[in-house]
Design a protein that fits this description.
Distance between the termini: 17 Å
Shape: globular
Oligomer: single chain
Length: 143
């Protein structure tokens, strides 16, 4: 809704990167979601001793959302191929709020974990819908 978009916009920070700069590294802890507004970058994944480019991202693309939502380490390294302008957002605020709510409601550990899993799925769905990606990934139906 409008208030959620306003909160998201207020949390966005200008994040410029120079050509060749590592924007995020595979295995790192996630703190930011990035939306690219200008430039191009390469997504690289290390498999064993080899590192491969698996994607190119440019204006209008975003990355970092899954690690941020799930708490998993970054699954790829992203390197600026040109000077890149991006907007970054810190999104764990929802997780903190959810933690406070589950504590207030005195939910058991299993119920709290289920609530968090449900919220992560809801947030992922909202992000996919917001960026117009709902139904565009293989195996994903439209909502």
């Amino acid at each position: 809704d409008t208030s959620e978009r306003d909160r998201l916009a207020a949390s966005m920070r200008y994040a410029p990167f120079a050509k060749g700069e590592v924007m995020t590294r595979q295995g790192a802890t996630a703190h930011w979601l990035y939306a690219i507004t200008k430039g191009r970058c390469a997504v690289r994944v290390k498999m064993g001793d080899e590192e491969r480019e698996v994607a190119q991202l440019g204006e209008g693309h975003f990355f970092g959302e899954m690690s941020l939502l799930t708490g998993a380490e970054r699954s790829a390294t992203v390197i600026a191929q040109t000077d890149v302008e991006a907007c970054g957002s810190i999104a764990p605020l929802a997780a903190r709020q959810l933690g406070r709510e589950t504590a207030r409601e005195e939910l058991g550990q299993d119920a709290a974990h289920q609530r968090i899993a449900d919220e992560k799925q809801r947030m992922t769905d909202k992000i996919l819908t917001f960026f117009g990606l709902r139904g565009s990934w293989p195996g994903e139906g439209s909502s």
